[in-house]
Specification:
By secondary structure, this protein is of the alpha+beta class. The chain has 4 domains: 2-174, no CATH class; 178-319, no CATH class; 327-454, Immunoglobulin-like (Sandwich); 480-579, Immunoglobulin-like. The strands form 9 sheets. Strands 1, 2, 3, 6, 7, 10, 11 and 12 form an 8-stranded mixed beta sheet that branches. The protein has a 6-stranded mixed beta sheet with strand order 28-27-20-21-24-29, with no helix packed on it. Strands 34-31-30-37-38 form a 5-stranded antiparallel beta sheet, with no helix packed on it. The chain is elongated and about 140 Å long.
Length: 676
């Protein structure tokens, strides 16, 4: 009887009785009592008695829990149901099994074609463990317990887990869910990169299992940037027991290049600090020299008293004559430069020695138009230039400075100056013309060969270079422009707002002028050609309505509205656009367009390929492979972010009125022949 049933099953299932070889096998089976023991001893090539068995789909946390077991064979399969067992939480649970597919069975045996689905519908507990046995061997198992060996953990509610190409995926109501893979964030800490997992799917939990550098596993999620790095990959898993590999070699190499550049700049700063320490030692030497000069002055006074004793009883006019002769102001001195408007709230006059001989300043005084006197307290030798500082004596608009002999009131040198917008905050160079000196306005500042700063309390040695850097002042001929504005940073705005500038022209060292909502402010900068710099504005960058002007070549006011939090207004394609891509101190995103045909689509990651270029979209697009599309996208940090995707519709050729057109053409040809 069973052999007869098997023949019917074979015919129904599509196996042709015309195949002579198969008929012989069926006849052989008819003569045999189909019992388990018999099947073991007989060899039937067309019956697979050991088919593949694995769990295909299940849910432990829904209203309609069930587990689906898939039994697969290439031709005809056979199961001995007495030896097929489902163990649920250590107890056998073979009741109410449902079979789907092309099959025929009795109480203890089942024959099937190709694939057989076996379902056990049961209200499983959240924490469950299921094992599938056949012929006393474990074929597959799953568990959702808080144990290390369990594959599945923290399974979501009302969602089924299904096997797909050796990977487990999430489905709901027979629809495939996003199953989004995570991103990995690289955080720089000192000389290390720390890798953090950014979860994108609320149902999937990802965990880093291993990080490999140069094909060698490391025990920490930290990458040492000082080591040699050729390749970096991340082995990670999800709570469905799936394992993945992500190559992040290019991203790590970019961070390594940035780190190495940072180390170079850090070394330069360290070298500058070392030079500064050397200058401190020079200052110590200078202080020692000052003390020696004080001693020398004391000795000079004592010599003076001795001279007075010498002239006791002598004619008084002779004494005064000798004394005045000894402290006469040198005629080789001229007033060379003045700066009444420095940024350091001090002013100064530079006196130049026209010869290299010894000079005596003790007999010299400086006066302005109001007879305010600038003291020159000491004597210096073999100096080419002497820089004399004062406070609040020189007028900020115009004045006349005279260098006089203290005793004879003879004018040694005169300098007249007048301040305008071109020379404000700059040194003004004086030139002699007979007995007068005329002010010349020069835009460039030449660094002095030797300088000495003289104040009431501080004197610099001839061998000590000035620590202050002379700037070019405001120069609106620069080609510096604003490229990014962050008016509404995350959290508090105060002291966290910034502007990014970029130098398209030559190296610039001086002052730039900003106008923020009708308020002016100045900033000293030192910026190289092709370099980005960050400026912290003094005035508030308002979020609702903002107008900024950077004075310079071809400068135009920038007008912005409604700055969103944690976003920047970036200069993209010569237009300021608000963007979530904050590119502080680096190149801004660029907006581009292209038309191409779709090659690949990954609906899980929202990444698609077009003309061999990968694009990232923020949502699933209504596109398919081979569609021709127009893409508007942002190019930033070696990635392409699609903003808008438009399908290009194929133009249909219309044959309406074609007959009339052909007739008209034939008529014209006929008329042309007649005319010939």
């Amino acid at each position: 009887m069973k052999a007869f049933i098997l023949m019917i099953f074979m015919c129904v299932s599509g196996i042709s009785n015309a195949d002579l070889q198969l008929n012989k096998q069926v006849n052989t089976l008819q003569k045999t009592n189909i019992e388990t023991q018999t099947l073991k001893t007989k060899n039937f090539d067309f019956i697979d008695q050991n088919p593949k068995i694995h769990i295909n789909k299940f849910s432990f946390n829904s209203e309609n829990d069930y587990i689906e077991i898939l039994v697969k064979t290439s031709i005809i399969g056979y199961l001995d149901l007495n030896k097929f067992k489902i163990i649920y939480n250590e107890a056998e649970s073979n009741q109410d099994l449902r079979f789907e597919g092309v099959f025929i069975k009795d109480k203890n045996h089942i024959f099937f074609k190709e694939n057989l689905s076996i379902k056990l519908i049961k209200n499983f507990k959240q924490e469950s463990k299921i094992k599938i046995f056949y012929q006393d061997a474990i074929k597959d198992e799953i568990c959702n317990l808080n144990l290390k060996e369990c594959k599945f953990r923290n399974l979501p509610k009302d969602i089924f887990i299904e096997r797909n190409d050796e990977k487990w995926i999430l489905t709901k109501d027979k629809d495939l869910l996003n199953n989004q893979k995570p991103d990995f964030k690289l955080i720089k800490k000192e000389n290390f990169l720390e890798i953090q997992t950014l979860q994108k799917d609320q149902n999937l939990k990802y965990k880093i299992e291993e990080i490999s550098i140069n094909d060698q596993s490391i025990n920490s999620p930290r990458i040492n940037l000082e080591e040699n790095i050729n390749s970096v990959s991340i082995n990670y898993s999800d709570n469905l027991s799936n394992t993945y590999i992500k190559d992040i070699s290019d991203r790590v190499k970019e961070e390594k290049i940035r780190y190495e550049e940072f180390i170079k700049y850090e070394k330069k700063i360290k070298d500058l600090n070392n030079k500064f320490q050397v200058n401190l030692k020079e200052k110590e030497f200078l202080n020692k020299k000052i003390q020696e000069q004080k001693v020398a002055i004391t000795e000079t006074k004592q010599t003076k008293y001795k001279k007075q004793e010498k002239y006791e009883g002598t004619d008084e006019s002779q004494v005064e004559k000798d004394h005045k002769e000894s402290i006469k102001c040198s005629k080789e001195l001229i007033i060379y430069k003045v700066n009444p408007n420095t940024n350091e709230k001090t002013e100064y006059v530079i006196i130049k020695n026209q010869k290299n001989n010894e000079i005596n300043l003790t007999g010299c005084i400086l006066k302005d138009e109001k007879d305010n006197q600038i003291e020159i307290p000491s004597e210096f030798k073999n100096l080419k230039e002497i820089k004399i500082e004062s406070k609040n004596i020189l007028n900020n608009d115009k004045d006349t400075i005279e260098l006089l002999d203290k005793n004879t009131n003879q004018k040694i040198s005169i300098c007249k100056y007048q301040v305008n917008t071109k020379n404000k905050h700059k040194e003004i160079t004086c030139t002699n013309e007979s007995d007068k000196q005329i002010t010349e306005l020069k835009d460039e500042v030449k660094e002095s060969e030797k300088k000495s700063i003289i104040s009431n309390q501080k004197i610099d040695s001839p061998n000590t270079k000035s620590q202050k850097q002379i700037t070019n002042g405001i120069n609106n001929s620069h080609k510096i422009k604003i490229t990014e504005i962050n008016a509404n940073p995350k959290g508090k705005d105060k002291n966290n707002e910034w502007l990014e500038i970029f130098n398209e022209g030559e190296d610039y060292n001086g002052i730039i002028k900003l106008k923020i909502n009708s308020k002016y402010e100045e900033h000293y900068i030192n910026i190289n050609k092709g370099e980005y710099k960050i400026i912290k504005p003094e005035n508030t960058l308002t979020n609702t309505k903002l107008e900024i002007l950077l004075e310079g070549e071809n400068s135009n006011p920038i007008k912005l509205n409604n700055s969103l939090e944690n976003q920047s207004y970036s200069l993209i394609n010569n237009e300021f656009k608000q963007s979530e891509f904050i590119s502080k101190s680096q190149k801004n995103p660029s907006e581009e367009n292209m038309q191409c045909a779709i090659q690949e689509i990954n609906y899980n990651t929202n990444i698609f390929k077009c003309d061999n270029i990968n694009f990232i979209s923020d949502k699933n697009q209504d596109i398919k492979i081979n569609d021709t599309v127009k893409i508007n996208y942002l190019k930033y940090d070696n990635q392409n972010f699609a903003k808008e995707i438009i399908k290009v519709k194929e133009k249909k050729v219309s044959f309406k009125n074609t007959g009339f057109t052909i007739l008209s053409i034939l008529s014209l040809v006929f008329m042309h022949k007649i005319s010939i």
